[in-house]
Structures are given as structure tokens and as C-alpha cells.
Amino acid sequence: MNLDDPATTLARKRLLQNKRFLRLVYLDWYHHLLRAVPPDGGPVLELGSGPGFLPDVMPDVITSEVLPLPHVGVVLDARHLPIREGSLRGIVMTDVLHHIADVRSFLIEASHAVRPGGVIAMIEPWRTPWSEWVYRRLHHEPFDPHTPRWEFPSAGPLSSANGALPWILFERDRETFEKEFSSWNIEEIRLMMPLRYLLSGGFSAASLQPGFTHGFWRRVESLLESWNRSLAMFAFILLRRGYPRS
Questions:
Q1: What is the pTM of this model?
Q2: Which of 23, 95, 107, 245 is the most exposed place for a label (fewest CB within 10 A)?
Q3: Tell me: the pLDDT tens digits for 177-231?
């Protein structure tokens, strides 16, 4: 299916509702986002709400998508946020940042939209020896950790991507990020989930494990936590808005 067709996102939403193992993976991700967001001080905006169900966990979240979808509150582009200055207490997203072709524009916009003390919290792909092997061989999205640029050509809002972009921004080019966006503090990068997303089959394959085994595999991953620098496929990334450092 054409990834940039809204019908594809609607089909994925139906799949996520019915695929128990994958839904439990998303539920774990959503609880990370929920714990990261300040309890008050303005609304929370979710970027790329797409097939997800974050409002089930965070009822007051403002859902958004770059494509018009019947279940999404606002249609917007992350590079041009129609948000009043300092009005948000947080921006959250799941597997979205690596689809933003001009991430600098998004970060500039977020610096205006999020109040001091507010956050950007996200779940994103991460580069490790294991994940790079998987993303390059078993995943349809581009994964290029060697590009010197943060930008990439934008062929379509969902089909364009560089899965290595979060690692590039917050690991390889961390000093550059901290100089250019000094009002954002990288508060936490928690590497996670070397196995469960693969076992869920994602949106393109059948689950390799039934839903009732999810708790078992979560425990297995907890035993592997000390190996996440080599094995993790994803990262929870938390940025907190402060004031520009002189």
C-alpha cells in the first residue's frame, strides 16, 4: 500500500486495534510518554497520531497528523506549528521524528511552542549493531547513519525517512545539537526493546508470538538491559525546555 495514502494509516489503525502483542508494545511506549509530560501548564500535542491510540492513555492530548484523518484533531506539518508562543507543556510522538525531512525547522518551531519546563518526549529507532542489521535488511525505511546532513529528500510525508536520524541528532552530533538548540536539555535517552517489536511483526507481518506472551518477553528484555548499547532497537528520548545558554 502507498504509505502516503490516508487509507494506509486507517488500515494500520485497525490492525493495531486487533493485534494484541503490537498494541501492548505501544502501550508500554505510551506510558513512557505519559510519565515524562509535566502534569499541568498547558496542553500536550501529539505529532503523527496516525494509527495510534494515545488518547486512551492521555485523554486530554491534542492529536495531529500531516494527512487528513477522521479520528485526528488537527492537520498540521511539524515544520510549521500553528501554536501560540509558549502555550504547550509538551510535544510527544512515536516513530515520527525520523520522518521529518527538515528537523531543524521542527526544533525551531517547538522552541517557540513549548513553555520553559515543558518537554519533547519521543520513542524513536536507535542505532546499535543489532538494530542496524535489522533496519537495513528487514525494514522498508532508509537507515543511513553516515549521512553528514540532518535533512533528507522529502518524497512523501510518511514514505520519506531516515531511521538513523534520532541517533545522529542526539548521539553522533550531540555537541552540534546542544550548540544550535541550547534551550533544550537532553534529559534522558533510555535504550530499549531489542526483541518485542520484532516479535510483534509490526505493521507488515504476522505476530511471531501470541499476545499473552508479551509479559514474558518484557521480562526477557529486562534481563538483557545491560546489553542495550549493543542490542536495543528503540530509544525513549526526553528533551526539556529551559532557557538558552549564553
A1: 0.95
A2: 245
A3: 999 999 999 999 999 999 999 999 999 888 999 999 999 999 999 999 999 999 9
